């Protein structure tokens, strides 16, 4: 992660602002260049509701790897209808079947395999989405309490060529639960089965005794899929 961006002097200290104020600032600052992303994960309803209350028509980028849980697709359908989301779905350039035929199951090929898999299925589609939508800023639901790799995430920071805003960066699980309860919003259905984080079915596990939340993704080998890491490539939009 890079350092936070320099904000105009007229802008209040966003580290001390409320989540709603942070979203409002982003909408006013970036206008039509602002997008929101969602994976329709465990607590996705929080960001989707928080942001669309301020910007109902904001483009919501949804990266569909082709390996999501059946429950995720149904959750996505239900939340899209409930909140009237302006979904912009992006998929990998190669299908899951083609990838497995050519490269095998890359998520079983160690950290390097995971990096290749994540680039093909997540990073490249997101980069394409940013370019095609003409985005200059990106709202994301990262929280400092989620993992060791996110402990120092800023409310606003630069990631390569795009500004990222994390309105709930300082929220803990209690605040998330309170928000969901206040607005009668659902958790992902796999929450009730012991999942605390949900991605692709082949690299997501339930939270078991002795595990940390970050251990439930990618067999504990890797926490970030690449979407929220600064790329070494100079031609990357994100």
Describe, in plain words, how this protein is organized in 3D.
The chain has a single domain (19-220), classed as HUPs (Rossmann fold), CATH 3.40.50. Helices cover 33% and strands 11% of the residues. The protein is built from six helices and six strands, in the order H-E-H-E-H-E-H-H-E-E-E-H. A six-stranded mixed β-sheet has the order 3-2-1-4-6-5. Strand 1 (34-38), helix 2 (44-54) and strand 2 form a beta-alpha-beta unit. The model is unreliable at 1-11 and 230-238 (pLDDT under 50).
Summarize the structure.
The chain has 238 residues and is of the alpha/beta class.
Indicate the percent of residues in helices.
25-40%
Taking the alpha carbons of the first and last residues, their distance comes to: 12 Å
> What is the count of structural domains?
1
Proportion of residues in β-strands: 5-15%
Dominant shape: globular
- From the 3D structure, determine the CATH topology: Rossmann fold
Class by alpha and beta content: alpha/beta
Strand order of the largest sheet: 3-2-1-4-6-5
Q: Number of DSSP strands?
A: 6
Rg calculated over all Cα atoms: 17 Å
Q: Biggest sheet: strands, sense, closure?
A: 6 strands, mixed
Level-2 CATH architecture: 3-Layer(aba) Sandwich
Q: Mind telling me the CATH class? A: Alpha Beta
Whole-number average pLDDT?
85
